[in-house]
Each structure stands twice: as structure tokens, then as C-alpha cells.
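Help! Submission page says 'invalid entity' but I think these are all valid:
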Amino acid sequence: MHRLALILLLFLSANGFSRNIIVGKNQPVSSIRKAIEIAKDFDSITVLPGVYKEGALQLTKSLTIIGQNYPILDGENKYEILLISGQNITVTGLAFRNSGYSALNDYASIKLVDASKVTIAANKITNAYFAIHVSNTSYATIKNNNITGTPTSEQLTGNGIHLWKSRYALIENNTIQGHRDGIYFEFVTNSTIRNNHSEKNIRYGLHFMFSNDDAYLNNTFKDNGAGVAVMYSKKVKMENNHFDQNWGPSAYGILLKDISDSYISHNTFYKNTVGIHMEGTSRMTIERNKFKENGWAIKVQASCENNSFQRNNFTGNSFDVGTNGSLSLNEFSNNYWDKYEGYDINRDGVGDVPYHPVSMYSMIIEQNPNALMLLRSFTVQLLDKAEKAIPSLTPENLVDKKPMMKSLKL
Amino acid sequence: MMKVSKYVLYDILRSKIVLAYTLFLLIVSLSMFNMEENSSKAMLSLLNIVLIVLPLVSLVFTTIHYYNSYEFIELMSSQPMSRTRIIISEFAGVSVSLLSAFLVGVGLPILLYAPDETGFALLLTGMALTVVFVAIAFFASVRSRDKARGIGAALLLWFYFTLIFDGLILLMIFNLSDYPLEKITLPLISLNPIDVGRIFVTLKMDISALMGVTSALYKDFFTSSTGLLFTIGIMLLWTVLPLWLAIRRFNKKDL
């Protein structure tokens, strides 16, 4: 029977068709390593259920590896399980567990180096240092993966999906939790991140550094140590994302640092300590977002300029806008603020009195965070009212001249 | 004792002031929930009522009631009944009437429109503050025979607890900002029942902002069940202590 199968295999390969190598305990080929060795370009390998402890595997041929019912590839806490360095490679339906940890190397469950057109789909990765590590790769597609880390400390835990110096990547429908950063981008251009769910990571749900012309859409970032950080980047599109319950002294829905010409729209910021924190940010458009029940909806540092905030809904936030200086070079217009107390005589839906979203008390807290324990105190409310009448501490030109009377339908 | 409390309660209900107070609270709460677009904003206004109006009404009403029923108290003292019992039954009568006013006026609307964690925290705070300020008012009014002086003292106490205390705290935070203040703020806050109640409610209402506090101590303390126990404990202390002082004073007093 075995001989027959082998002959059949040889026949198929000689025939010039791509062949399918089946790997399993009772099959002629019982190890994935062997299967990769004998396979030729454009062959496919089907891995039957079981536990495979094969150390570090390397894949350089254009192969498709398909797992049936999630066969387990165990790294025994020592090895980098799968290294991919080639093109036209697909890896799908495998379960990776226990990849090794190293202080010197970024060990990963799946590592892509100098590859292109690689698809990593529908895999389960547990207890990894780095789960998927991609460097110098173009056209990588990473989708439908389920990644669960074992969070320890920032130093001992790697990133869920880590991309470095890559182009045209697509990260889609992944669930990532318990890593250092859920998704990490450094020097990645023209890439898209969409429909991912990143939660309970130690540091950031999504971390962008020096990555231009990217988009992230429809993602949910929830309960991460510090929310989402987008730094030193240009032309990033952020749309329809949910930023939920990122709580802590330095946790933000989005932290924007030295970023310019980007677009933030239709996002929902719900119950974050700070919805958007902006530092050294310029020429951003922030429109049609919902800010709901955040500590601070937006914190704009004085180092930001030419940003425009339009048609956003601010409801139930403890503070609408916080800032650290008296200068403001940003434009607010046509937003709905639930704390607005003005009137609309000509009934055009736009309030006739400008709204100053920065309260005196938020300036006080900026200088002296200990004062936060007086939140909602009668004394503080009186001070705020006095400041509204005769502004002295709050920046006078941080103002919405056209506040909406009713909340916008977003 | 129950009998005396019952008479006190009848007396209060007959004067219709408590009825008016109940109606006032009910109308204000209902209109807030109906006028505001989201219930969280209505809760914010209700919090202001609970923190400002409730202590004021409790203080002033109790003081006036004490002086108005002074003759009744004198009459009771001539009966074979200890003075401690008289004060406690007076306290119980006033507390029950004001508590029921609060529960109908604010409790019902909250149960109808916002029966969540914040709502229950607000109810608990309101009930505690009512009882605490009734006790404080008894302490203030037992001390002086003159009605005007008693009401003046009550108003002054209200000013102190709602405005002056927080002003002093703010001043302290600014002048001593170079020192590690985290450890002493908690004991300081417990010196004012209104602040304890306020922080207890805002921890439900503004949890996102308060999580920005750098002091881990403060955060752990109030978010765990210790926070609830602490709040209840401090409020109890603030009820028992003034009441005990009032009783001690009243027992020695030449009526």
C-alpha cells in the first residue's frame, strides 16, 4: 500500500502537476521537515492532526501548507517554529504553540524574512514570544489568525503581529490578545489593517512607528495597557475603529506623536482615560468621530498646529478638551458638545454663542494632577463658572465658533 | 421610644414642609431625566442636588424642627424617660421623614430612568448624607438656646462642608505640591462627608478620568470593595459622632 502511494506520488510529480504531500503519523511522510524537503515549488502539503515537535523549520520553496483540524506545531519553548523566506507561500490552518524565548533574537512562531506574496491565514498561535514576525517583506497577507499570548512583563513578551520594513501588507480579521503590542508597524508603507480585534495587550493595541501611507479600518482596540500609538508617521488613515476602555495614567484611545497629514474619521472613543492625545501633530483632519464617556475626549498639547476638528460628537466626557498652554493653532468647528449652554435664535441648528471646550479646572489638573480628587466639587464648579464669565487661565482662541445645538447623526 | 418617634413623624407630616420637599425633589428629578438627551447628564445634575441641596435642607429643616418642638421636648423630659431616648427618637423621626422624602423624590426617578451602578451609588450617598446632616444639625442646635443662632450655625456648617473645605483642600494641594500628598489626601477627604460621597459617586460616573490618577493607592482603594466599606464606615462615624456629642451635651443641659 505504502509503495503504491509512493509510486502514485512520483507519477504525479513526473506529470508536471503540483502534487499534494500528506503528512501524518501513519502516512509515508511523517514529518513536516521531510515533506518540505521533498516538495517542489507549487506543491502543497496537507498536515493531518497530531502534535509535531520538529524544532525550527525553514521554508524557502513556493509551497502551500494546509493544516487539517489544527495540527499542533510545538516549539518546546526553545525553537523558532517556522521561518519563511521565499515567495508565493501560504500557511493555513495550523496551531502553533510554545515558541522559544530569547533575549538576543526575536524568536517568533512564524517569521517572515525577505519574503513576498506570503499568506498566513486561519492559524492559532498560543504562548509565543513574538507570534508573527515579518521583516523586509512585501505583499504579506495575514488574516483570520487567532493569537493569544501569555502576558508577563514588557521585556519578556513580544508583539502579536510585528512588521518591520515591509510594503503592501494586509492584516485582516485577526484576534490578538495578551502580547506586548497587538500589532506593531515600523517602517511599513502602503499597508492596510482592518477588522482586527486587539485587546488586553500589555502595552499598545496597535503601535505605528515611521510608517507612512497606511490605513487602519474597522478595528477594535479594547482594554490595552496604553491604547494605540501612532508616532512619527505621515498620511495614515484611521476610520471606523473602536477604542474602548483604555484606562490608566498614560493610557490613550490614540496617542498621536509627531504625525502629520493624517485622517481620523468615524471612530468611536468610549470610556478611555484620554480619547486622543496629540503631541507635535500637524495638518490632521479629525471629523465625524464619537467621543463618549471618556475622561478627556481630546488632549491637544500646545505643540500641535493646523489640525481641524469638525462634526464630532462629544457626550458624557468628564472633560472635553485639555491643553497645556495658552496658545492654540487648531480649528474647532461644527462639533456637538453636550456641555454647551448657548442658544440659537435664528434656528439654523448652530449655536449663536461660541463654546470654549477647555474648562479652568482641566487647566488646573494639567498643572497639578492631585487636584483631580476635587472633580465635580461645588467649589470647582463655581471656579469654572467664574472663568467662563471672565477668562484668564484658559486659552481664548481654543474655541468652537459654530457649536451644533443637536448631536450629529454619525 | 417608638411611640415618641411616631409622634415626631406625625408632627412633621402635618406641617407639610416635608411633603413640599418631596414634591420639589420629584419634579426636579423627573424634569431632569426628561429634559436631558442622555441620562448621564441628568445624573450629573442630580449629583449636584444630592451634594448641595440635600445637606442644606437636612440641616435647616432639622434645626427649625428642633426649636419648634422645644416645648414638646421639655414636656417629654418631665416624663419618666431618659434624655438620650428623647434625642434619639427625635433624630429617628426626622431622619425617617427626610429619608422617605428623598427615596420618593429622587429614588423613584432613578429606579425608573437610570437603575445602574451610578444610580445606586447616588442613592446610597444621598441617604447617607441625609442622616449625617440631620445628626450634625442636632449637634449644632443642642448647643444654643437661641433659634437664630442655631440656624446661623447650621448655615455656616453647610458653607463649610460644601464650599470652604474644598477651597482649603485646593489651596493645600497648590501650596504643598512639592510634597507627596497622595498619602494624606485620603484621611483629609474623610473629614468631609460630602467629599466622601462625591468621590464614591464620581468613581462610578467618571471612572475613565479618575483612572488617570497616578496614585495607585487611591485607585486600588476606591475601586475595590474596601472603598464601599470605607464610605459606609466614614458615613456611620459621621452620624454616630455628632449624635453622641449632641446627646452628651443635651444630658448635661439645663433646659
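Support: the input was valid. A stray whitespace character was the problem, and the output above is from the cleaned input. Helices of chain A lie at 2-14, 32-38, 360-367, 378-389.
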